[in-house]
Amino acid sequence: FSVNQNGGLRTSTQLNVFRQPIMAGNWKMNPTTESDALNLAIGFCALVDTLEDTCGLDESDTCTEVVLFPPFPFISKVKDIVSEKGVTVGAQQVYYEDKGAFTGSVAASMVKSVGCEYVLCGHSERRTLFSDSDVNINAKVKKVLEFGMKPILCIGETQEEYDLGITEEVCAMQVSKDLAGVSKKDLENVVLAYEPVWAIGTGLVCDAEDANKVHKFIRTVLAKMYDEEAAQSIRIQYGGSVTPESVDGLMAMSDIDGCLVGGASLFSDKFARICNFKATEE
Ligand SMILES: O=C[C@H](O)COP(=O)(O)O
Prior knowledge:
Helices cover 38% and strands 15% of the residues. It is of the alpha/beta class.
């Protein structure tokens, strides 16, 4: 396992696979106006280092990938602002049907047509507040892949499940149900995000070593479902109260390939520092 000056590659010594770091900013239902959203995007672009400028390396896949998830109405304009920095955009959610009488829903084709490359699937807030079941999440993951986009599949245990000591069982169950029927080839376009629900928006960031153990465990589940190559190749983000203070420790872990950031992504300086993380060699 080694990293470059920008945090760089996660290199599995076992299989010679490379995992490009990926940082994602999930704005959730913020900011509340278009002008505030565009100002946030502009401020972030002024501060983030990307392969377009300071990374200074030839191969783009050695630099950190950055994705923003604005609310639906702001996606197009945010994309116009951030694309010059090599930052991409995604949708926070889609419905699994193609089109029709589904008032209030947004289809995968719609977000694809406005330039989304990623879609969040199975975020805990969708699971709990909007009753997103594993069956529905599985259908959404497949729909996102069908339209040539990349799902970021969020999994993780609740506080109660953590207290019961069943984190691994919960993660294994979610991975197997949410990825049911997804081929090994399609898995190459999937990113996982391990988000302990008790750490989301609480300020309780999971200990980096503990999170890394869960990430390693998730790879063992994937190795059984697919094979070792697939398990070592997939990128797994950590999410839950990530801050500029905690990011470097998390990114120093062997199996944490990026972060899914909520609250801190609403501050351009904080999220830029998170994207410009400094990882040390292990
Ligand atoms: O999607 C992001 C996660 O829910 C983490 O949110 P947070 O950084 O506010 O804890």
